[in-house]
Amino acid sequence: MTNIIVENERLHLALEAAQVGFWDYNLVTGQTEWSPICKQLFGLSIDADVNAAILLDQVHPDDKERVAEENFKSVSGLNEGDHDIIFRARRKDGGFRWLQAKGKTIRQSDGKVVRFNGIVQDVTLVVTARQQLEASQQQLHNLFEQAPIVLSIVGREPDFVFRLVNEAFSRLVDRPLAALLGKPLLEALPDIAGQGVENLLRQVATTGVPYVQRGAPIKLVQQGQIRALFVDFIYYPLREPNGDVSGVMGVIIDVTEQVLSRKKLEESNARYQQLYTELDDRVQQRTQQLESANQDLQRSNDNLKQFAFIASHDLQEPLRKIQQFGDLLQSQYSDQLEEGTVYITRMQSAANRMSTLIRDLLSFSRISTGQIDRKAVSLADVIDAVLADLDMVVLETNAIVDIHPLPVVQGDASQLGQLFLNLLSNALKFHRSNEQPTISVTADEVVRAELPDTVKPARLASTYHCIKIADNGIGFEEKYLDRIFQVFQRLHGKSEFAGTGIGLAICEKVVSNHGGVITASSQPGQGATFSVYLPA
Fold first, then answer.
1. pTM over 0.85
2. I need a labelling partner for 252 at 20 to 30 A (CA). Which of 107, 122, 158, 219 fits?
3. Over the stretch 205-258, which tens digit does the pLDDT of each residue have?
4. d(Cα 192, Cα 197) in Å, to the nearest integer?
């Protein structure tokens, strides 16, 4: 008896050390024993008076009915005598822990249960770990099923039975999952026979070495028709814990569109290369033509410069002789010539006009063929110099010239001087006889987007200087706007206003040389405004 007591004490100490509670229920005497650990596991104090109902009340509401049913089966003898159940019980802090109760019933010879005892232990860590494992497995399964790439797992040879396939695989082969799972490879997909798939699977299963291929051609039946596809695929061996290969996982990516697009791109590149070669040949031919044209243009410029030299020297010399002899005839023989002096006067006037015309043509030629020496030029200084040259005309006409602040531009000071000399002299020349001439010169900055539709500068720039020369002269009809900037174009007779009709052509050429554009607006009798746009 003493030995039994000692053994029981040792058992109780071992259970307490292992944090395992125990219970003992004598159905004959009605006596019950609940160990302190058992009470603590149910969230009760170790000195609490407990019974089966109190312990059941500590069970989670969702598990209470199941626990009560299993307890009833054990004490009533409805089961085989083994009691094993996992459930949740309340802790002291109000939370719940997972417990496992394992018990045994003792029966009399007539089969009646007389005793029910067992142990209870905290299995929260085990249950939580199992739940996490199940969740991970389910997550992996969901990822497998929902993966956008084609996945499959087959067993080893000889038949390579499909163990698992996802929806993407089902769509690729155009067969329902039920027609694939559990079926041998060639039975489920007879259309791939002879394409080497089974040989590759056998190679991976035998060697245990993954196989990778990019852009592999394959033929599959889709919607009742054989389609030629291109796929990237990996066959990967699946191993058992002992290292043996038990199956093969296939990863397939349909790259048909990419492969076809790449082939089209390669064909396009070949066509473009051919076009490039042809275009290069044409460019070389065109370059040679341009070089020839440039040489012709250079010869033409040289001829024009030679003509300008002749005009300035050889043509002017006979005119000077005519003018000199005319002056002698008028001064020394006017009495003898009588009425002939009228013809000599006309001759002198014609010679003067011819000389002026030659000088203007020479200026136009030089501007057309000369190089621009671009420097920072103050337009205010240019205007001051021009007004100094026109000082006598300003005094004779009693003109008012109002000069507003003007910008500094990049250009040729000499050509810009000719531009404003012609514009200001025209404004003074074409004044109304009964009104004092008034001229204003203003400047503004205009961004390219705000240029008038009719204004097309010779060079693109983000902003432009707009210099306006406005007068109150006789004006002109704007229908002649396209004519006034052409050589020898005049809107008035020689008897009304002197001139050669080259001045505005020189203005247009100077502005074009500077990357700008010139235009005008006017009405007869209401003056004219010339607008010069130069890149800022």
1. no
2. 158
3. 999 999 999 989 999 988 888 889 999 989 999 999 888 999 999 999 889 999
4. 7
Say how far residue 278 (Cα) sits from the centre of its chain: 32
Give the sheet arrangement for strand 162-165, strand by strand.
162-165, 150-155, 245-254, 225-239, 211-222
pLDDT confidence tier of residue 448, bands split at 50, 70 and 90: very high
CB 469 within 8 A of CB 346: no
Tokens of 465: 């200087």
- CB-CB contact of 441 with 467 (8 Å): yes
CA dist 430 and 2 (Å) reads 147
Mean pLDDT score of the chain, rounded to an integer?
85
- Residue 227: which H helix or E strand, with range? strand 225-239
Buried b (16+ CB within 10 A) or exposed e, 460-492: eeeebbbbbbbbbbbbbeeeeeeebbeeeeeee
**Tell me, what DSSP letter sits at residue 493?**
-
Phi, psi of 495, rounded to the nearest 5 degrees? -70, -25
Q: Count CB atoms within 10 A of the CB of residue 75.
A: 17
pLDDT of residue 9: 60
**Cβ(475)–Cβ(526) under 8 Å?**
yes
How does 249-275 read in b/e, with b if 16+ C-beta sit within 10 Å?
bbbbbbbeeebeeeeeeeeeeeeeeee
Element (H, E) at 273: helix 256-313
List 248's β-bridge partners, or say none. Answer: 154, 237
